[in-house]
Design goal:
This protein has 584 residues and is mainly beta. It has helices at 11-21, 183-193, 347-355, 418-423, 506-509, 551-555; strands at residues 27-30, 36-51, 54-61, 70-73, 77-84, 92-95, 121-127, 133-139, 149-155, 169-178, 202-205, 222-225, 230-237, 243-248, 253-258, 261-268, 270-273, 278-284, 293-301, 313-319, 336-337, 375-386, 401-406, 409-411, 456-458, 461-464, 468-476, 485-489, 494-501, 519-521, 523-526, 530-538, 542-548, 559-564. The chain contains six helices and 34 strands. Strands 11-10-13-18-15-16 form a six-stranded mixed β-sheet, with no helix packed on it.
Length: 584
């Protein structure tokens, strides 16, 4: 998964050299800024991969699955040239990167850019400002991120240590989902019939399903460790539609970071990680050789009523035997322990775990929570229905079609990119600027659903003046059943100042907000049958997507966009688009 980086001697020499070798190797260029410039070449191409005794052709970057690792330091500039060699339109998103004044590089199709068409290329160019930790990249069009994904490792600035024990080794663990079928066919069929999509056949760790699936023992991720060492595991949930519990048998984990933001460390045997989220944990191995091997397992947390992939992925934690002459082979004769994971519907575990997440909130890593807010918004988050077209049979409830919405608006993807339309002043006919700031028809959100559960299908954005401090409460609804929804906001981190169950009560619940050390992240779960409150500062001009990271819900319309206007100063304005920005 690693991508080699070539250090540079002199600025001009490297600039010339990188132009020649860019097609072959990622390169590094010295910069006049605080960091350096790192170049990557991403060729999107098909490759044959065999899993579960079946070979299929999948989309990859550079023929690798999972895709290449991007490594940078805080303050570095990253330039990634993406060339599309496949029949599908492509965009890539650098999930969690703030993209300060670089919205053209954010990547969601038809939001910040038109897709890269077959045979075309686009250069993503951004600087990593004030961030360090684990993020990830993935395709951001249809369901292509099923196989197009990889880690982003942001190291601290040179000479700046971690605020925790320096690890002996760092290891990315990426959770994914594997389909025997073509995922584009899966979602296309679901959208045609109005029913729920078929579920995956397996979960994976670093692309491998592991020994608990039929015909898969040979495709098992094995982590070989030494006794008495501390390892930093960089966990990423790239699954399309499932939140996951994760645990390692007979070992505890220390949570030190989520979504590339340090947290107050705490120990746990099990963690929960939603699609889109990252979690860094410290694993300290036993001081003595244990004469055993240990499963590392992940399986879904399920809060809704839809069908799901009820299976478990396993990797193996294997100790190097200091007395053994050979450390290359896995010793099958040793006992193999399995962890005890929570029940698949254990919402109380999820609640207790998320409540433990707190920002460091110290002098070096402050929690800059907006203490006052300029605008407050209340969004209902949940499923809904669309009527079935005439002369068609639909497979949703009572012959309807499944939909999903925010404030009953099921977002319709435009045919051209919102950011281009906004920047060029040609928004007429592309989007409206009157996204509702609260439900137009309030109801008992977690009680008896209203009689009319049909959604409105439109393309609307919510406009924010530059530097607006925002408080947003997201409320799950019981329409078609309560369910947890991991909401991801592009272009910003936010502070999770409160959460609870039932209907949000502004008079009572806001008084209990944590404005001192709330966790800061880019993807948060709206609790099943509950609400979550976030605050952020709209200090990044552009158009920023916000959507459920359960891909099926995004496909059904659980998404919207914030349009943050330019500020008055030059460094508060969005620069013009790059010359190679793809055209629709």
């Amino acid at each position: 998964m690693a991508v080699s980086l070539i250090p540079s001697p002199l600025l001009m020499t490297t600039l010339i050299f990188s132009c020649i070798t860019l097609l072959l190797f990622p390169t590094i260029i010295e910069s006049q800024q605080t960091g350096i410039t790192r170049h990557y070449q991403f060729d999107v191409q098909m490759a044959n991969v065999t899993r579960l005794c079946q070979t299929k052709s999948i989309l990859t970057v550079n023929g690798q699955f999972p895709g290449p690792k991007i490594v940078a330091r805080e303050g570095d500039r990253v330039i990634i040239r993406v060339v599309n060699h496949v029949a599908h339109n492509i965009t890539l998103h650098w999930h969690g990167v703030r993209q300060l004044r670089s919205g053209w590089a954010d990547g969601p199709a038809y939001i910040t850019q038109c897709p890269i068409q077959t045979g075309q290329s686009y250069v993503y160019n951004f600087t990593i400002v004030g961030q360090r930790g684990t993020l990830w990249w993935h395709a951001h069009i249809s369901w292509l991120r099923a196989t197009l994904y990889g880690p982003i490792i942001i190291l601290p600035k040179l000479g700046v240590p971690f605020p925790f024990t320096k690890p002996y080794k760092e290891v990315p663990l990426i959770f994914g989902e594997w389909w025997k079928a073509d995922t584009e066919v899966v979602i296309k069929q679901a959208l045609q019939t109005g029913g729920g999509p078929n579920v995956s056949d397996a979960y994976t760790i670093n692309g491998l399903p592991g020994p608990l699936y039929n015909c898969s023992a040979q495709d098992t991720f094995k982590l070989k460790v030494k006794p008495g060492k501390t390892y930093l595991l960089r966990l990423i949930n790239s699954a399309l539609n499932d939140e996951l519990f994760f645990s390692i048998a007979n070992h505890s984990l220390t949570i030190v970071e989520v979504d590339a933001v340090y947290v107050k460390p705490f120990k746990t045997n099990t963690l929960i990680i939603a699609p889109g989220q990252t979690t860094n944990v410290l694993l300290t191995t036993n001081s003595n050789y244990p004469n055993a091997n240990f499963f590392m397992e992940a399986r879904p947390y399920v809060s809704g009523q839809a069908t799901f992939d009820n299976s478990t992925v396993a990797g193996i934690l294997e100790y190097e035997n200091p007395k053994s002459l050979s450390s290359s082979s896995f010793n099958k004769k040793l006992p193999l322990f399995r962890p005890i994971l929570p029940a698949i519907n254990d919402t109380s575990f999820v609640t207790n775990f998320t409540k433990k997440l707190r920002s460091l909130a110290n002098a070096q890593f402050p929690a800059n929570v907006p203490q006052t807010v300029d605008q407050k918004f209340f969004f209902t988050i949940g499923l809904g229905l669309n009527p079935c077209a005439k002369n068609q049979t639909c497979q949703g409830p009572n012959g309807t079609r499944f939909a999903a919405s925010i404030n009953n608006v099921s977002f319709v993807m435009p045919n051209t990119a919102l950011l281009q339309s906004h920047f060029s002043g040609k928004s007429r006919g592309v989007y409206a600027s009157n996204f509702p700031i609260m439900p137009l028809m309030p109801f008992n959100y977690t009680g008896t659903p209203p009689n009319n559960t049909f959604v409105t299908n439109v393309t609307k954005v919510l406009v924010l003046p530059f530097n607006t401090s925002v408080e947003l409460v997201m409320q799950d609804t019981s329409i078609l059943g309560v369910e947890s929804h991991p909401l991801h906001l592009h272009g910003f981190n936010f502070f999770v100042v409160g959460q609870g169950f039932g209907n949000y009560n502004p008079a009572k619940d806001s008084a209990r907000f944590n404005l001192v050390d709330p966790v800061e992240r880019n993807t948060v779960g709206v609790p099943a049958g509950g609400w979550v409150a976030i605050r952020f500062l709209a200090d990044n001009p552009g158009v920023w997507f916000m959507h459920c990271h359960l891909e099926v819900h995004t496909s059904w319309g659980l998404k919207m966009a914030w349009l943050v206007l330019d500020g008055s100063l030059p460094n508060q304005k969005l620069p013009p688009p790059p010359s190679d920005l793809p055209k629709c």
